[in-house]
Design goal:
The structure is a homodimer of 417-residue chains.
Chain A (H helix, E strand, L loop, with lengths): L2 H6 L4 H12 L16 H16 L3 E4 L5 E5 L8 E7 L12 H16 L8 E6 L12 H6 L5 H5 L9 H11 L4 E2 L6 E9 L4 H5 L3 E7 L1 E10 L3 E2 L11 H16 L7 E3 L3 E4 L5 E2 L2 E10 L2 H8 L2 H8 L4 E10 L2 E2 L2 H13 L4 E6 L4 H5 L5 E6 L15 H21 L1
Chain lengths: 417, 417
């Protein structure tokens, strides 16, 4: 990439910011956040908008069987697989305006400035919107990329339904119906390299005043679903000794789990995010509890050792109820390809942006992509590291610098790979 | 009541049982229980059925502004207030086939055998269906009787809405629309005496092989709603020390509450029945928890002393979150009128039924009625004391004996009062 090209290739911070604000209206919550579950009406609308922008520029639009959407600017070599950048557009129920969508919009911005500069790349360049990364509508999360790379068979996933019984298959049909000019993307179509920008979701970059985080890898994780099965009883008449109180036993189990997951160094991440009590009535001793464990650690040995204790601890801690423990997800910790990290560093240096190598606490689709093609991630600072929260914030300047590095890195990868 | 009348006045065990089974179809659950929230479609259907039976016998039907329904067989003295018997028809979400409805059907059976025997009573005899006793659709519970006797102003209650935003007022309108021949009952219309049959919801009568429980009173209760307010955060990136995890603080609070409510004699009833975690997503540190405490004890001093500690214990036990504690309900323990207890005893003896005096662990509408007119309760045995549970069971024989005592007691009260 020559110096003159470098000057032409300037992302537009105002356009990028405005698009963040426009997208935040789709699924906006009262408290300034976003609730945009995968392929719900606002999310389909977002997909349609981006597909429409792509169509205006004659970019191809493709949707695969899991609902992942690709927008492609052609390359000069018809045999070259695409360089892909993007992220997801779905959010947590009380999510923010940046998690996921910033990576999509950075990739759109990059593709558009490359197009505006009339740069002829050898590889096609694609923006991807992975479907259902958060996993709040369809469980589990990150299945868009997992299914795409063949880690998880699509057959097992298509039948997954949301809380109202709507299947992923039906949701994808409604996406395709809305974007009726989109072609079918075959799952597993080769990709030359994958780059994902994301807000850090941690406090390091902001507190150290760093522009660009070069992500070294993603920590390992295991997720569990625990059912505690007791017996409903009348709250006014049933003595404690006669109760099989699923709530009280679940609390005893959580107390025991906290002990084994306690980490004085505070590196273990242990979260009970769902905890559902049935029947959930003031005057009824609960008969059932379902709760989840989300556990993460960068060291695969720790991931293994602690995770293996969960079922036993639950069984032992339950006093009068029975327990069922299911492991719903696991992923070893991942290290991103070195050459992609180096490309990001070079591009940051070229623009005189400060940068820092750091691991990712959160999981991302890049985890699955890394097993499929050279992959990397760019973090941008976010306010106090707050994420999965309506207060989530990243500044226009940070987002623009990140998108700039995405654009530059795509062109450098085009020459390298 | 003469001996010959006694012979004429025989309840019909088969009819009574068949009606229990028929009513259990309205809101039947898959596991053999009943889910019939107040004034939902199956509950309105039940009200309509009973009103239709009443109409066939030319009994008046009246509905008050809270949705309590009265069915009246006229007495000889137009100035006499009614002798009322009944209970409620709503159930817990995983409730049984007997709680509430048995009291209504016993009263219907009593009124019908009195009518069939052409007994001319001085007082009118009424069957009542109190609305929303369980309080699972509209909170709090027992408001039908509380509003009727003026304990709670109706204005405060009419605006109460269910989880879908439907108000009690709207629900009552739909009941009146279905039973369009019902007249309006004025709240607070005087009542001469009140008698309520109920399954025991405890194990004593069954285990001691007793036919009739003569209820001495109802234990005192205080109910609380506790909000734990923290901050949502990302489960993968947020260190424990930076979290304001509303779930973990709520668990710490429950641990602390269990300690103060621990009772080696097992007389204290302490239940956390609702426990709702927001946003309730696997990968989000919970930002809010709402939970309820249902606490009961027969001794008013204990009710006072333990209940007064709740707010302070919650505040102290919370580690990084704030708490809001609201007392949503309280009721002192109640003793039923002696003369009503004596009438029940006489009637049981007359039929050679075994009987036992015992207190009620559960709350009932009879609590509020007792402050309004001479009131009493009759318990019948139920299987292992199981209630608020789909397995709830009472035998046809037990129910028939109970209904017989209701019929006999109403006639004895008619002569006495």
């Amino acid at each position: 990439m020559g110096c003159d090209q470098n000057d032409l290739l300037r992302v537009d911070p105002d356009r990028l910011w405005q698009r963040h604000m426009d997208m935040a209206k789709l699924g906006a919550t009262e408290r300034g956040g976003v609730n945009r579950a995968a392929l719900t009406i606002p999310d389909v609308e977002l997909h349609w908008l981006l597909a429409s922008w792509a169509r205006k520029r004659n970019f191809a639009v493709e949707i695969d069987d899991y609902g992942n959407q690709f927008m492609r600017r052609a390359g000069s070599d018809p045999h070259c697989p695409a360089l892909v950048s993007g992220s997801h557009s779905d959010t947590q129920p009380t999510g923010g305006r940046f998690d996921g969508i910033s990576g999509v919009l950075a990739a759109v911005e990059a593709m558009e400035v490359i197009d505006d500069a009339e740069v002829c790349t050898r590889h096609p360049i694609e923006v991807v919107i992975w479907n259902n990364e958060e996993g709040t509508r369809f469980r589990p999360s990150d299945m868009g990329s997992a299914v795409y790379v063949g880690d998880t068979p699509i057959e097992r996933m298509l039948a997954a339904t949301d809380s109202e019984g709507v299947s992923i298959e039906t949701a994808v049909d409604s996406l395709r119906a809305r974007i009726d000019w989109a072609k079918v993307r075959q799952l597993g179509t080769p990709i030359a390299a994958y780059l994902e920008l994301h807000i850090e979701q941690g406090p390091i970059l902001e507190s150290e005043n760093i522009d660009i985080g070069i992500v070294t890898g993603i920590q390992g994780t295991r997720k569990f679903e625990i059912h505690v099965i007791g017996e409903e009883a009348h709250a006014g008449t049933t003595p404690e000794r006669n109760r099989q109180d699923a709530f009280m036993d679940a609390v005893a189990i959580v107390n025991a789990l906290r002990e084994i997951f306690y980490d004085p160094e505070d590196i273990v991440r242990f979260t009970v995010g769902r905890f559902e009590v049935s029947p959930g009535s003031l005057a009824v001793v609960p008969g059932r509890v379902l709760f989840t464990i989300d556990f993460r650690h960068p060291d695969n040995d720790v991931v293994q050792a602690l995770g293996d204790q969960v079922a036993e601890v639950c069984k032992k801690a339950a006093i009068r109820c029975t327990t069922e423990v299911m492991e719903t997800r696991s992923a070893l910790s991942t290290s991103f390809e070195c050459k992609v990290q180096q490309v990001i560093e070079k591009c940051a240096k070229q623009r005189a942006y400060s940068f820092k190598y750091l691991p990712s606490g959160a999981g991302h689709d890049a985890r699955y992509m890394n097993s499929f093609c050279p992959s990397g991630m760019i973090f941008v600072p976010c306010y106090k590291g707050i994420s999965h929260n309506e207060k989530e914030y990243a500044s226009p300047e940070s987002l623009a610098k990140g998108a700039q590095v995405v654009a530059d890195s795509l062109l450098m990868l085009d020459e390298m790979i």
